[in-house]
Structures are given as C-alpha cells and as structure tokens.
Design a protein that fits this description.
The longest helix is centred in the first third of the chain and has 14 residues, at about 25-35. This protein has helices spanning about 15-20, 25-35, 70-80, 120-130, 145-155, 180-190, 205-210, 215-225, and strands spanning about 40-50, 60-70, 90, 105-110, 130-140, 170, 175, 190-200, 235-240, 265, 270-275, 280-285, 285-290. The mean pLDDT is about 95. It is about 25% helix and about 25% strand. It has 8 helices and 13 strands. The strands form 2 sheets. An 11-stranded mixed sheet has the order 8-9-5-4-1-2-3-13-12-11-10, with helices on both faces. A hairpin with a 3-residue loop joins β10 (about 265) and β11 (about 270-275). By secondary structure, it is an alpha/beta fold. The protein binds zinc ion. Zinc ion binds near residues 259 and 262.
C-alpha cells in the first residue's frame, strides 16, 4: 500500500514553529497533558513522529526511547540535542510500515502526527501490533468538533460540518478528526480508551496576546479534566491500553524488515540486512534508515 506521507525533511519546523515563542502556551499545556497520561515508569517507549525531539525529554521515566520520524534531518536535530547513547535509538521510517517485531514496546506516543495521516485506522492497527499486551498508547489528535469550528459553522463561515464523523482535510495532508470516530478506530484496533484530556482550549491569538501565559496555562490545565465528558478543544489527548493477544516478541529480537516483515535482520558493518527479500537498511550518522521506497 502506498499512502502519501507528510515529510518534514529539511523543514525548519522546530526553529520556526516551536522556538519562536508564539507557541509556548501550546507546548506547556501539552507537557501537562503528557505528564498526566504517561505511565510512572517503563522500559521501552516508541515515540512516533518524534521530529526534533521536542517531547523526548518528557519521557524521563523510560529506560530507552526509540525516536521514529520520516525525516532524517529532523532526527539529526534530535540527535544533536539528545546525543548518542544506549538510551536513544533513531529510526527514519514510515509509520504505515514500522520496522519492529510485534509485541516489543511497553508504551508508544503519537503527538501532533495523526492529523497528517490519510489512513489513520491503518496506522493505529500497525502501532497496536508493535505494543505488548497491556502497553500504553498516548495519542494526540486535532479535533474537528472544536468550539471555534462549531461557531463558524453556525454563522455560515465554514461549509464543513464539525459534528459529522468523517475527517475533514482542510489543507493537503492536514486532517481534523471527530473524537467519536477516533475512539471507534482505537477500539477496533485493540485499544481500550482509559482517559481523554482536552488541550489548548485557549488557542486564540487574541487571548494569547492579552492574557498572561501563566494564567492561560493554569486555566487550560484545569479545563483538561473535562475531556472525559465532552471534547470541544482543538487538541485532544487520549490514553489507551493495548488489549487482546499479541505475538510474543522473540527474546533478543528488535527490528524486522519493513518491506517484507522478515526478522531477525542480519547486522553487517553499516546496515541491517534482510535475508528474505535482500534489502539492506543502512545505518548512517547514528540513524537507521528504514524508509521503504
Ligand atoms: Zn525483507
């Protein structure tokens, strides 16, 4: 299956989107939501769409973290700030074709990524497969049923219906989802929804300019708890647990061929090689390149 990919290669996403200071509010309220949803400790965490590693330091209670992104330049930025150690593994990969054996991870996160995925249910099934039974998956998605969209729809400033279940693609490869649709995909993929937090309630330029940051963050932090009752914020965090059976991960195995699914891969000097399909997955500058072309 060849699904389109939103690639941040060579983009200045971290420096232009996050580091300019205009999104300090979004960054801080996301940090609060993550802290509330993350398990207190764990061994191996999979960070999907890790980008330049903005959230990675927040996973401090995990022993090892695998950062996955499609863009090697984003991963190089992450590596420059986090460094090379046994604690971090950097892998360029397509989320639809994950290069890991089933049942490997204790936890996974997908923050600000699902809104770029044309086939979200397919991606969620793949993520479930690489989690252990009982593993925790934290998902953030962009909510089409947000207050601003509802008001715009009521006042005829927007044609699409925020209450209908189908995703809305408001720009190419930028989707907003209905919370009930996301919950249903999660359940069908083998995830049990445990908690929902609504986040970024005050993502309105007027408020961000006029009110002190600390006040907005405090108010959002309180409003997050309403997420299990209703979801009207632009961003929603969901904590889920993997249920049902998973193939037990073979001891000592980690990667599998993302093209044909074969494992184990054979290590050579600068690559991992698949004996089944003959592909070589290069390791360059500390980054595993598993992108299927
Ligand atoms: Zn293969």
């Amino acid at each position: 299956m060849n699904l389109p990919i939103c690639d941040y290669e060579d983009s200045q996403y971290q420096s232009q989107f996050w580091d300019q200071g205009e999104r300090v509010y979004e960054d801080q309220v996301e940090a609060i939501a993550l802290q509330r949803l993350l398990p207190p400790r764990g061994d191996l965490l999979l960070e999907l769409g890790a980008g330049a590693g903005r959230n990675t330091p927040r996973y401090k209670n995990f022993k090892r973290i695998v950062l996955v992104d499609y863009s090697t330049s984003q991963l190089q930025q992450a590596r420059a700030s986090l460094g090379d150690s046994d604690r971090y593994i950097y892998a360029a990969a397509n989320i639809y074709h994950l290069p890991f054996i089933p049942g490997l991870f204790d936890a996974a996160t997908l923050i600000r990524v699902l809104h770029h995925m044309a086939d979200a249910p397919y991606a969620l099934r793949g993520i479930r497969q690489v989690l252990k039974p009982g593993g925790i998956f934290i998902l953030e998605f962009a909510n089409k049923q947000n207050l601003k969209a509802i008001l715009r729809y009521i006042f005829r400033r927007q044609s699409w219906n925020p209450f209908s279940r189908e995703p809305v693609e408001f720009a190419r490869l930028n989707f907003d989802f209905h919370p009930a649709a996301v919950r249903s995909w999660l359940q069908r993929s083998g995830f049990n929804v445990q908690r929902q937090l609504t986040v970024s309630h005050f993502r309105i330029d007027f408020l961000k300019r006029r009110l002190p940051l600390k006040l907005l963050v405090t108010l959002d932090s309180l409003a997050q708890w309403s997420g299990d009752l209703c979801q009207l914020s632009p961003s929603v965090f969901v904590r889920t647990q993997a249920v049902g059976d998973t193939t037990k991960a073979a001891a000592g195995q980690f990667f599998r061929c993302p093209a044909c699914g074969n494992s184990p891969l054979e290590a050579s000097s600068a690559s991992l090689d698949c004996s089944a399909c003959g592909r070589q997955w290069l390791i360059q500058d500390g980054i595993h390149d598993f992108r299927v072309t």
